[in-house]
């Protein structure tokens, strides 16, 4: 769970995209999780968005 958006980098405000090094470190951590799906709740845009990242290295939905 994170209070700012993890996947959306479009708006330039509060997003993990403003911290690319930390975002990549988090993705690297996800690769260490054995074959289980990962769900991350993030937000603070005051509207709804469903985002999905696909990667062969990261079991991320």
Automatic annotation (TrEMBL):
Xref: InterPro entries: PhoD-like_sf
Name by which UniProt lists this protein: PhoD-like phosphatase metallophosphatase domain-containing protein
């Amino acid at each position: 769970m994170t209070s700012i958006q993890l996947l959306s980098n479009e708006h330039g405000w509060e997003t993990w995209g403003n911290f690319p090094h930390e975002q990549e470190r988090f993705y690297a951590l996800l690769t260490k999780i054995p074959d289980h799906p990962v769900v991350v709740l993030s937000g603070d845009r005051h509207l709804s968005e469903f985002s999905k990242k696909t990667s062969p290295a990261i079991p991320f939905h």
